[in-house]
Amino acid sequence: MSKRILFINIFVLLFTCGLRAQIYTERVLNIGRNALYFEDYILSIQYFNQVIDVKPYLAEPYFFRAVAKLSLEDYKGAEEDCNRSIERNPFITGAYQVRGIARQNLGDYAGAIEDYNVGLRYAPEDRTFLGNKAIAQVQLKDYDDAEKTFDKLIKLYPSDYNAYLSRSQFWLEKKDTLKAISDIDKAISIDKYQSYAYAQRAIIKFQYKKQYEEALEDMNYALKLDPNMTSYYLNRGIIRYYLDDLMGTMADYSHVVEIDPGNIMAHYNRGLLRMQVGDRNKAIDDFSFVLSREPDNFFALYNRAILYFQIGNNKAAIRDFDKVLEQYPDFADGYYARSEAKRKMKDMAGGEKDFKKAMAIYDQRKNSDKLVDPLGNAVSDKVDNDDNGDDKVRKESDKNINKFDRLLVSDDFEVKSKYKSEIRGRIQDRNARIEMEPAFLFTYYENDSELRQSSRYSKELEAFNRAGLLPEKLLISNDDVSIDTIQIKKHFASIDEYSKQIEANPENPIPYFARSLDFMLVQDYSNALDDLNRVINLNGDFIFAYFNRAAIRFRQMEYKLSGENSDDETMPAVTGVNSSAFTSRNKNNDIRFGNLPKPDDQGSLEYDMILRDYDKVISLDPNFEYAYFNRGNVRCTQKDFKAALNDFNEAIRLRPDFADAYFNRGLVYVYLGDNEKGIADLSKAGELGVVSAYSVIKRLSD
């Protein structure tokens, strides 16, 4: 009897534990789905990760995580999660839809159509499958089948607003503007309160029919329905410009700057308009803003140079002209303009030299129909008009410097949504600099973040904290914060207290280490290093001291260099360890490292000292993943990419969910030209909570 009772109790206990686990995973999955619904994509991924860790055999969390990744435009990651979901349950119809959309965005149109066909076997009248399939067929230039799919879609859903809008784009592909406008008219008749159709009709009337007044009327109505769409204001500004309404155009760009202060196109175009109306100082402000975000924007540089010349700042003008002419050595107007600025500076010889160079290029144009651009490509000697035959605008992809005075437009007038939050919604659209995740160190503080991974763990750190040797819990973090006034006072008082302890017992390494933390937090790196040196002299196996000494030395190097290079406008901003990183403006071709000393420069000794400390940490604890990560960062600044990859590989081997290491390794792969591996690592980093990874993936995919 007692055995039976024992068996029953064990069964009840196991059942209860299983039930609790079931309730736990269901609860976490539901929270993730709620986050997904409210467009907290990054946060939702963290919840789905938890479910996958506990129950990796479930299909649903992979599917929902794929939806989140799709929303973040991590198409490869979404495709892979759909693969996992379908492997576990091939009857989740939505997985074929999400994978089809991901493949479509990756350019695998045939694969997307295959997924849509599978979905249509389960749901033969599903409008999403039909609509996406038709679009994929258009992208494959399979116009006959696309037309049949659109016809089926509209026959099944004759009141589908989106079906007519999609088919209107199909007609534009076939150069049939009449049918395109007819479908948009039909969409408007179905729902006259949707702004997109009016905006699209305005673009067609503007681009294809030159009906500027009618285009303006449609765009005005689109803005009445949706007054927060920045793309509508940008497009209306162009339409107004063609109607010679300069003030109206400027008002539209100013409004974009108000609601989206970082919009580069609005600042650039407003700068051109201010230049035209003689508001030179404000125009300089606009071009300077553009250059703060895009230092190699030679159009902004040249226009600012002209403005500097006009207001008499010839030194600044020449500096900007120099940069432009270095990139465009056959730009005759640039040499002529610089010759005038040099003459104003009493540099008659330099002015004469530039004048002769300009005349030589002009003479060359008289004798040849072709010139060669800085990349060795043949270009026309004339400023060709755009495809639509006008000379008022320049497309983003057009780098002909002779079009410096034209308004900038996107390569195609797209109507894009604006998302204000940096975390919620489409965080991949953030215009952020691409930087490596910074080095770790031991500290008392770090930024609070709902997206941070589980607490950084180290068995040595845990044991140290249990011993209670410091007044506060010690953390290992690469997201430390600046302390406030109250904390500064506290740490200065702590320095005084530890100084007394050291005076009483100078052979105890702990007060020195504690005081080094205080010095570090109040930005006194020299004293922090002195204390860490004393700690190591007293205890040659103190891992924390070696680790922090290397990290602080690295910061000290960067701080020193930031002061030495503060007047160099070509350098990225240097702020703490982040400045050791990449900056990027033009995909992987423009990724570069911060301006720390090369190994053969004066800084080689500092590098050696830093690397020796990390080597020592690793010799004391070969499983300390943060030492490999930090050493990988240092080797990146030395451009020793092979060694850096080895370090990031080891960090990931020791900790398979090391998001920062995936991110940095991904950037190294991208820098080395292996985008496939790079994007895979960046996708993994995004999955694990590094928000900026999705912005990098989007840039690489554009």
Structural notes for this entry:
- The protein has 702 residues and is mostly helical.
- The protein has 3 domains: 2-227, Tetratricopeptide repeat domain (Serine Threonine Protein Phosphatase 5, Tetratricopeptide repeat), CATH 1.25.40.10; 228-431, Tetratricopeptide repeat domain (Serine Threonine Protein Phosphatase 5, Tetratricopeptide repeat, Alpha Horseshoe); 441-701, Serine Threonine Protein Phosphatase 5, Tetratricopeptide repeat (Alpha Horseshoe).
- It contains 31 helices and 6 strands.
- The strands form 3 sheets. It has a two-stranded antiparallel sheet. It has a two-stranded parallel sheet with strand order 3-4.
- Strand 1 and strand 2 form a beta hairpin.
- The longest helix is centred in the first third of the chain and has 36 residues, at 2-37.
- The chain is globular.
Spell out the blueprint of helices and strands.
Layout: H1 2-37, H2 41-54, H3 60-71, H4 75-88, H5 93-105, H6 109-122, H7 127-139, H8 143-156, H9 161-173, H10 177-190, H11 195-207, H12 212-225, H13 230-242, H14 246-259, H15 264-276, H16 280-293, H17 298-310, H18 314-327, H19 332-344, H20 348-367, E1 370-372, E2 378-380, E3 393-395, E4 407-409, E5 441-443, H21 459-467, E6 475-477, H22 485-504, H23 509-521, H24 525-538, H25 543-564, H26 604-620, H27 625-637, H28 641-654, H29 659-671, H30 675-687, H31 692-701
Parallel strand pairs: 3-4
Antiparallel strand pairs: 1-2, 5-6
Helix pairs in contact: 1-2, 1-3, 2-3, 3-4, 3-5, 4-5, 5-6, 5-7, 6-7, 7-8, 8-9, 9-10, 10-11, 11-12, 12-13, 13-14, 14-15, 15-16, 16-17, 17-18, 18-19, 19-20, 22-23, 23-24, 24-25, 25-26, 26-27, 27-28, 28-29, 29-30, 30-31
